[in-house]
Design a protein that fits this description.
The protein is mainly beta. The chain has one helix and twelve strands. It has a domain at 125-276: Sandwich (Jelly Rolls), CATH 2.60.120.
């Protein structure tokens, strides 16, 4: 009988040792052991390790899902100064008085044009791209002159598309990221064009993803709403229009309704700065 009891004691001791070696022993506590270190709970294999990752990339939780997916930080986009080639300044004739409200004051004499910064790789997407208009037969010039790269203020370098509510439209031939637009209506004389509105859309009929990026119509006389932008006096620098971050589209449409010298609508050149959308 004594031998049997001794065998049972040995069996129990062996089983306890095996359990401890396998990591399924007591959970432990935070009290220091004889060596001064606190004992930590051991995993017995029943917990769901996927819920609480502790090491490696999977430990970074996706804030949108709460899961263990690694969140990649977007690379910082390098900005560069946009180099715009300006035509020769050449005001001529006697300026017509501008009794027009909502005209922004020009820069002070000697004040330099502020630098325009855009993402690296930005180009003029509009160069030699197709141009259409709600005036199919311009009074002077051809619509293709709007994107031919010629910004001269000399006679014969601009398109006259008549009076009233007129627009020209550029097909970039693909959806693009658009960071800005420059327009030269006519810089041979100090004048301001009325109701200048610039829109971007995905389709040529302007029914999909239409975005107005500039609107100087202060009294809704054009019918597209009252704009928040001020009109401006034409110069050889043209007008650079900043597009909000995330502006994407294939078509760019520019509106106007006469100017302070006459009722005609003119365009010398339009440039659209951006990159092809990925």
């Amino acid at each position: 009988m004594k031998d049997i009891k001794m065998l049972n004691v040995l069996t129990i001791a062996l089983l306890a040792g095996a359990m401890i070696f396998a990591g399924c022993g007591p959970k432990g506590d935070d009290t220091p052991d004889k060596g001064g270190a606190a004992t930590k709970p051991s995993c017995c294999g029943t917990c769901d390790k996927s819920k609480t990752p502790t090491t490696g990339p999977a430990a970074v939780k996706d804030p949108t899902t709460g899961g263990g997916t690694t969140v990649k930080t977007p690379a910082k986009v390098k900005k560069v100064v946009l180099a715009i080639e300006l035509p020769k300044a050449m005001f001529k004739g006697t300026p017509v008085p501008m009794n027009e409200p909502n005209i922004a004051p020009g820069r002070k004499k000697g004040e330099e044009r502020p630098e325009i910064k855009v993402p690296e790789g930005t180009v003029n997407l509009a160069l030699n791209k197709p141009v259409t208009s709600n005036e199919s037969l311009p009074v002077v010039g051809d619509l293709e002159m709007v994107t031919d790269g010629d910004k001269s203020g000399e006679d014969g370098h601009n398109v006259d598309i008549g009076f009233g509510k007129k627009w020209v439209q550029i097909d970039l031939e693909a959806v693009c990221n658009i960071y800005g637009v420059s327009v030269w209506h006519y810089h041979g004389q100090a004048r301001a064009y009325r109701d200048v509105i610039v829109e971007v859309a995905d389709d040529e009929d302007f029914t999909q993803n239409v975005q107005i990026v500039y609107n100087s119509d202060h009294d809704n006389s054009y019918g597209k709403g009252i704009g928040e932008n001020m009109g401006y006096v034409e110069t050889n620098e043209g007008k650079y229009i900043y597009c909000p971050k995330g502006t994407k589209g294939r078509y760019v449409r520019l509106h106007s309704q006469g100017n302070t010298s006459n009722d005609q609508n003119h365009y010398i050149e339009v440039e659209v700065y951006g990159t092809p959308a990925k």
